[in-house]
Design a protein that fits this description.
Blueprint: E1 4-8, H1 11-23, E2 28-29, H2 35-42, H3 45-57, E3 62-67, H4 75-86, E4 90-95, E5 118-119, E6 124-125, E7 132-133, H5 140-163
Parallel strand pairs: 1-2, 1-3, 3-4, 4-7
Antiparallel strand pairs: 5-6
């Protein structure tokens, strides 16, 4: 079954890496936002950003957080993760630091964004439930292949996990 997902990522440093994952076509994703579109959305303030995120998440069964070296702790990434979880969507993370950017460079590995978020009244770290995968390869082509071969299964697993909570 092909799933529709919302991709969450830190735009400026990771857009190129994120586009590689999105273009693999393993799962159907939300439409990418251009620099100009994002500037007009952010110009409307927090309410406009929240409305845009809600619209992009509508009809999606999961959120895939593409984790770069500066993803964890970002305000809107945290908001997207929390909203997806609260809305009953599966949530999964994938480290993308070893995919090359447009200049052919890789990045250093970023922190797990789910470590800084808690769930429910018990305050359990989200990282104790939500999985964040780190492809076990150093070359960009192998990382791409690994993510392409596993992403659909990771999304299905994230949905099953979310259905248990």
């Amino acid at each position: 079954m092909s799933r529709n997902v919302f991709y969450s990522f830190h735009y400026k440093p990771d857009n190129w890496r994120a586009s590689q994952v999105r273009n693999a076509g393993v799962v159907e994703g939300n439409l990418p936002c251009s620099d100009n579109d994002w500037e007009s959305i952010t110009g409307g303030g927090a309410a406009a950003i929240e409305k845009w995120i809600a619209g992009q998440m509508s009809g999606r069964s999961a959120a895939v957080v593409l984790v770069g070296n500066a993803t964890a702790g970002r305000k809107w990434i945290n908001y997207e993760i929390s909203k997806a979880w609260t809305d009953g969507k599966g949530v999964v993370g994938v480290h993308i630091h070893n995919l090359q950017n447009s200049q052919g460079s890789q990045a250093t590995k970023g922190s797990n964004p789910f470590d800084g978020l808690t769930m429910g009244s018990g305050g359990a770290k989200m990282s104790t439930i939500v999985k964040c995968y780190d492809p076990p390869y150093a070359t960009s082509t192998k990382v791409y292949e690994y993510v392409s071969n596993n992403l659909a299964d990771w999304v299905e697993e994230a949905i099953k996990i979310r259905n248990n909570y």
